[in-house]
Design brief:
transmembrane; 45% helix; Cytochrome Bc1 Complex, Chain D, domain 2; 3 domains; binds heme C; 267 residues
Length: 267
Amino acid sequence: MQRLWSWNNAWFRWSVASLVVLLVGSMLVGFVWLPSVHSDFTAKSLWDSICRAAGVPTTWSDANTPEKRPQSTSVVLERSMTRVSENDQVGRGATLALNCTMCHGAQGMSTSNAPNLAGQYPEVVIKQLQDYKGGKRSNAVMEQLASSLSNQDIEDLAAYYAYLPKARTAPTTYDEQLPALVRVGDPLRNIAPCISCHGGVDQKIGTPWIEGMPKDYLIAQLEAFKSGVRRNDAQSQMRNMVRAMTRDEIAELASFYAGKAGAGEHK
Ligand code: HEC
Ligand code: HEC
């Protein structure tokens, strides 16, 4: 009589084979398929999905991806940053801003490819300057300049730029012709509509005013988020979206927002 626990027993071979198939199948479902259909799924690789399914903290699985190595930002955005105080901050900011006009323009409107600062939300200017200062956003000139600014200087500069007329652009509204990605995004690729965070309608705290910015600047920033060279966006909000976007889409969006320059005298 054949022994039950033997490879010669067809039943034994079959049961081992079906066990293996079941195991592999359920691992694929549990580790790859299910995590990948989660709406907030952001993993970039199979390994990330496996770590995520197993409940490994993202900081562990991401530790080796170079784009995540430095902490993305250490600035905590607070509502109080959005208020420009009524004292003489604006005046002090204006004096400090004399060092910035060469690139950002006399009235905060750049004539080169530097970003416009006129009318930029104060918490954005504070956050970005703190990020340059702390080496979280890299740019040789800005890191150098920001390193010599005190926290008070930064707040004064933010107050001054917030006080200047908003980049002479109109806010983006739903009543105009909008590129699809601006209006509805692309849920299948996890791209949220730009208008839901940027601009005059629904501005989320910390989200920059981008209407009327130089086109080359917008392209450079989107490309930098895409490649991970710029990684100071909290929770990778921008990186996660732009990663899925094509060069053509980036160019279209940059043209759209840059094209709003002079579209309306908005204060
Ligand atoms: C030599 C040119 C130059 C000077 C001078 C300069 N900047 Fe900049 N600034 C730039 C460029 C270029 C960028 C975009 C860099 C990047 O890609 O990160 C920038 C970025 C910024 C940003 C980020 C804006 C955004 O929308 O993200 C802020 C804020 C800023 N600068 C403030 C200042 C302040 C305040 C001063 C003066 C103390 C100053 N800059 C002086 C060239 C300059
Ligand atoms: C979930 C909210 C959100 C959505 C949606 C969003 N953004 Fe952003 N975006 C941000 C935040 C927050 C920042 C600032 C990141 C930081 O702190 O440096 C930012 C920064 C940017 C910048 C850099 C601006 C500067 O001056 O530094 C550009 C350009 C930009 N977004 C374009 C877009 C476009 C185009 C879309 C639509 C495809 C979009 N964003 C959708 C939140 C969002």
